[in-house]
Design goal:
424 residues, globular
Length: 424
């Protein structure tokens, strides 16, 4: 009580004298981690929580940020979309975090977005998504559609990709797959693909029975034209989907599947031998040959073993959203150090043009205006060991298009996030 009274007296005396009042700041900077550690999305999101904790541990070992250690605050929204918003509000208002790293699905991101905008806090979102959004309070370190979906379908249509003429758009029933497929349908139409040559199917989160859907795909593919499947299935439904693909003998040479939400982690529980040659499109694969990736995978293996992480202590895997999480944390650190504060608006300004040598070995750059990374695109084939062999890549990083030109109502939309004036 005496100490508190002394601080109040000191503050009052300094104010009366016209001197600035010193900030009696906390000894740590709190950082929120908002990922599903249970429920249907835990298969994908748990490892992002661990990646964030590894990066924070690394940063703290080198002195922290602005001379302070980072203090992670981990919450579990449990694959429950409204709960994401509640947990986000708790992190910002109660826990007083300076930034949050989190979300996987677009429905979870859209759940929390009004909270970050209302409370003027920062969210770093590390997963590919459908675009059609731009917020001053979000930095998107995953891919926009032109950095994943469009190049993947262009590849499928090319001679190297099998010259596909018919397409099955198969996804989980929520905003990301539906909007991505709206973009892809428009793109395919611009390339002369008729509606009759596009089949669109959706299943709920947690769906497990793909027997009927794979039978429909086989029938559709048997109608005379080379067919490919574009999969936006998310979460643990990928395991039964790929198992059924193998059960029904749907090989990549017959009907190739390109996935946007399946990486090394999702294939962990699947016999990948029948899946050899099927594809995934990402901006990073664990198999990429680069000194930066060697360092990243070794660090992750050592961390997973030291922390006794289930699955990873024996078989440490890295994937694209892990890389995007890692990039985001280090870019935020650099921006805070440039701004010399964790103040949201000053950090937003300092994020423009930030660069970081990504584990892929490519220098990632945060666009000066649109809050998205410039990212290289890779297409990988599934190998028998569950890893991917890169079969195609862009010549260099691609600038994101948050507003897809294949959605007509986007004509004339600008990339700049609107920064509202501060309330007085």
């Amino acid at each position: 009580m005496n100490r508190r009274h002394h601080l109040k007296s000191l503050t009052a005396a300094l104010a009366l004298a016209g001197l600035s009042v010193p900030a009696f700041a906390q000894n740590t900077i709190k950082v929120g981690i908002l990922h599903s550690l249970s429920g249907t999305m835990a298969i994908s999101e748990t490892v992002l929580k661990d990646t964030a904790l590894m990066a924070i541990e690394e940063i703290n070992a080198k002195g922290g940020v602005l001379g302070k250690k980072l203090e992670p605050v981990v919450v579990d929204p449990a694959s429950n979309w409204p709960l994401f918003a509640e947990k986000a509000r708790q992190l910002i208002s109660k826990d007083k975090v300076a930034v949050t790293f989190g979300c996987w699905t677009s429905v979870s991101r859209k759940s929390v977005l009004p909270v970050y905008e209302e409370l003027n806090s920062l969210l770093f979102y590390p997963v590919q998504y459908e675009g059609e959004e731009l917020s001053k309070n979000v930095f998107y370190t995953g891919a926009a559609p032109n950095q994943q979906a469009i190049p993947a379908v262009e590849y499928l249509m090319s001679k190297d990709g099998g010259s596909a003429k018919r397409f099955v758009l198969l996804g989980t029933d929520y905003v990301y797959p539906r909007t991505t497929n709206k973009i892809l349908r428009s793109f395919l139409k611009s390339k002369g693909v008729a509606d009759a040559d596009i089949m669109e199917e959706y299943t709920p989160f947690g769906h497990a029975d793909y027997q009927g859907i794979i039978a429909k795909i086989k029938k559709f593919a048997g109608e005379g034209k080379k067919t490919a499947v574009v999969s936006t299935i998310n979460g643990d439904s990928n395991v039964p989907f790929y198992k059924e693909l193998g059960n029904q003998g749907l090989k990549a040479t017959d009907v190739p599947v390109v996935a946007f939400s399946v990486g090394e982690e999702e294939l962990r529980g699947v016999d990948t031998k029948p899946l050899v040659g099927h594809l995934a499109a990402w901006n990073y694969f664990m198999s990429i040959k680069a000194p930066a990736n060697d360092e990243f995978t070794k660090k992750w293996a050592a961390y997973a073993k030291a922390k006794n992480l289930p699955g990873h202590k024996d078989k440490p895997l890295t994937n694209d959203p892990m890389e995007a999480t890692y990039i985001g944390i280090y870019m935020w650190k650099q921006a805070v150090e440039k701004a010399k504060t964790t103040d949201t608006d000053k950090v937003i300004a300092a994020m423009a043009g930030q660069t970081f040598t990504a584990p892929s070995g490519i220098t990632s750059k945060m666009d000066e205006k649109n809050h998205h990374l410039h990212k290289s695109v890779f297409i990988g084939e599934v190998k028998a060991d569950g890893q991917f062999s890169v079969v195609w890549k862009t010549p260099g990083p691609v600038k994101a298009q948050p507003w897809s030109p294949f959605i007509p109502e986007n004509k004339g939309k600008k990339d700049e996030p609107v920064i509202a004036p501060k309330k007085s």
